[in-house]
Write a structure and sequence with these properties.
The protein is mainly β and about 120 residues long. The strands form 2 sheets. A 4-stranded antiparallel beta sheet has the order 1-8-3-6, with no helix packed on it. The model has no long low-confidence stretch (mean pLDDT about 80).
């Protein structure tokens, strides 16, 4: 895979928004989104698609607070099958965690730096 350009020199435009898609198995234990083989992946947004069947996917953007004793429902977003949600204001995908209400599921998510093209 070719590396993305790192400057505008010699070109009118390059894409700084490096998006990546991942799949991850989620069970009833809270786990950070990993971003594939590397531990975490830089991004400012992650789009999560509830492509599971049965149960509810609970997604947390502040799981460290939950583990520190804050009530878990204050920091989770429930996703039913077929629903989608975008978490913004991140610096890495590993700031988002997830767990299933029951069973296991393989979820899909996409990391990106921004939703629109800055001028």
């Amino acid at each position: 895979m070719a590396l993305p350009p790192t400057s505008n020199e010699g070109t009118q435009y390059y894409n700084k928004n490096q998006c990546r898609s991942f799949e991850q198995q989620i069970s009833t234990s809270l786990v950070k989104l990993s971003g594939g083989a590397v531990s975490g992946f830089p991004c400012s947004e992650v789009i999560i698609k509830g492509n599971h069947s049965g149960g509810v996917l609970f997604v947390y953007d502040r799981a460290e607070l939950y583990t520190a004793g804050v009530p878990e429902d204050e920091y989770r977003w429930p996703l039913s099958a077929g629903e989608e949600f975008t978490f913004r204001g991140l610096t890495n995908v590993d700031q988002v965690s997830a767990k299933m209400s029951a069973g296991t599921a393989v979820i899909g998510y996409r990391t990106q730096f921004f939703s629109t093209n800055p001028a």
